[in-house]
Amino acid sequence: MARRRRGVLMVTLVGALAGLAFLTAGQPGAVDWRRLRAVALHSDDWGLAGFVPSVDAWVGLDRAALSPGRFPDVYWNSTLEDSACVARLAAVLAGGRGRDGRPAVLQPNYVVSALDWTGGQWVRRDLPDFPETYRRPGLWQAMAEAMWAGVWYPEYHAAWHYDPQRRRQAVAAGGVALAAAERGVMLFPGSEAARELGPWRPTSELAAELDAGLAVFTAAFGRGPGSIIAPDYTWDGRCEDLWESRGLTVIQAKREQRHPGLPPGAGGRVLKVLDRQWSRARHRGRIYLERNCRLEPAQAPDAGAVVAACLDQTRRAWRCGEPAIVETHRVNFAHGDAAVAAAGREALAVYLAGLAGLGETGPVFLVDAEIASLVRRGTSLVEAGDVLVARNGTRSRRLAIPVAPAGPPKGTVALYLLEGGFQGLVAAGRSR
Ligand SMILES: [Zn+2]
Predict the structure, then answer these.
(1) Residue 411 belongs to domain spanning
(2) Ligand 1 geometric centre to CA of 126 (Å)
(3) CB 220 within 8 A of CB 127
(4) CA of 43 to the centre of ligand 1 (A)
(5) How far is the CA of 405 from the centre of ligand 1 (A)?
(6) How far is CA 400 from CA 288, 415, 419, 424, 425, in A?
(7) How much distance in Å is there from the Cα of 13 to the middle of ligand 1?
(8) Which of 160, 240, 237, 149 lies closest to 196 in space, CA to CA?
(9) What pLDDT is stored for residue 90 in this prediction?
(10) Per-residue model confidence as pLDDT tens digits over 236-251
């Protein structure tokens, strides 16, 4: 009897340990992230023609009647970046050096298309084209300069950032929705809930939208994306399958995912954790990158406290053996109120300077494509201007291949032999 009880106890214990292992399992990896001390800067909403072309768009418009839904106050005057915004931010990033001598690099996640209500009808605008009310001379040149300098590494965020059908319907009803569209205001009644990847949208429609979006992205930036973040953190399993079928296997912010199908409250939260761990266990080919640090000064009264907390979170991430992945939205750097953008740049500069004080060795700045390649192969090679930034996160000599964006490799693939721990540059032989 006692033996049988012991047996039951053992089975229960093994089951509990297996359950614990399942619930706490992270990504396997070839790299010691404690030693690498990596920082990635995730920034959503670049290229979004919204919320307003400028603060003047609100003059004479009944904001309350528009009732778009709830979002942080600062977003009312969120606007499309301009060339000066990008150039100033690029200068801040260039001033933040990693211990490998490379500058800080921002990963702007782009919205690639916009609806433009002009002449009484909708016109589709694809990057680098924008609605007439959002024309920003020199923007694409400034963006290309920042890419070439290695401080700007675009990735994919959204096609529109909302369900385009819902916007069309809202504006067709006329009234305040039409008045907003005429002024270039992207908001419409219920727009906050009109999520681009909402569960009501047919999979075939989402597939066509993704294909069009990827084509726009590739034409605009000269390469396909290697990482994706869903708009409003809202997506379901269909979307991940679609992304993977198009070669997009690096998924940002899984922990923030809003499941339309899950119940509210504690039950929903438990199911969310189970679903996340199940996704990780079931889809070994996908890499989920969690945002574990937050730098959103535009949403807080005390930017200094936000920076201090973000530095703490960075230290904690490294201690836990994770890359520090910082969430910092465009609204902090591009805004109708120039003071908001200036404060955002200042907060970023203070954060970058503060990283040097977190340990005896400084950080290295990585993008998702590098993190994913380091996790998978222990090495990474990504383009930055006319060079390839090469890294070997292991202690042994390893072969590296350039990080391939979504889709099969084209032409010949070069191989590089990197010494253990190597971080530096190899010639890419690319010209402008
Ligand atoms: Zn967004």
Answers:
(1) 378-432
(2) 17
(3) yes
(4) 9
(5) 22
(6) 22, 6, 10, 13, 13
(7) 43
(8) 160
(9) 98
(10) 999 999 999 999 999 9
